[in-house]
């Protein structure tokens, strides 16, 4: 098995953002599913023209859906 690169490469055709390498590093080194979801959401939203905010919901142990990841980070404080 080959070693995982220190930073995942940016896919061809994707323009770099202000901290593209940092976002890929966050995704690669995420320690929990919530951290991975937040990193993935950052990568996606930074590439969507006009994106202002986004949420990922996940089903909790009680079966109800709850916010799991949000973008940008300041959105998470809204409504708490």
Describe the structure in brief:
29% of the residues lie in helices and 16% in strands.
Describe the overall structure.
The protein has helices spanning 20-29, 33-45, and strands spanning 54-59, 65-71. It has 80 residues and is α+β, with helices and mostly antiparallel strands. Helix 1 (20-29) packs antiparallel against helix 2. Residues 1-11 have low confidence and may be disordered. Strand 1 (54-59) and strand 2 form a beta hairpin. The protein has one domain. The longest helix has 13 residues, at 33-45. Strands 1-2 form a two-stranded antiparallel ribbon. The protein is built from two helices and two strands; from the N terminus they run ααββ.
Count of helix runs: 2
End-to-end Cα distance? 45 Å
Largest sheet: 2 strands, antiparallel
Oligomer: single chain
Number of domains: 1
Strand order of the largest sheet: 1-2
Query: Shape from CA axes?
Result: flat
The average pLDDT is 76
Classify the beta-strand content into a percent band. 15-25%
Alpha-beta classification: alpha+beta
Low-pLDDT stretches are 1-11
Radius of gyration in whole Å, from Cα?
A: 14 Å
Order of secondary-structure elements: HHEE
Secondary structure: helix percent: 25-40%
Kindly state the number of beta strands.
2
């Amino acid at each position: 098995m080959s070693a995982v690169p220190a930073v995942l490469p940016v896919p061809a055709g994707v323009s770099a953002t202000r901290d593209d390498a940092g976002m890929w590093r966050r995704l690669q080194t995420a320690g929990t599913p919530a951290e991975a979801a937040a990193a993935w959401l950052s990568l996606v939203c930074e590439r969507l023209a006009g994106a202002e905010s986004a949420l990922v919901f996940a089903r909790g142990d009680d079966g109800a859906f709850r916010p799991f990841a949000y973008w940008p980070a300041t959105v998470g404080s809204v409504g708490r």
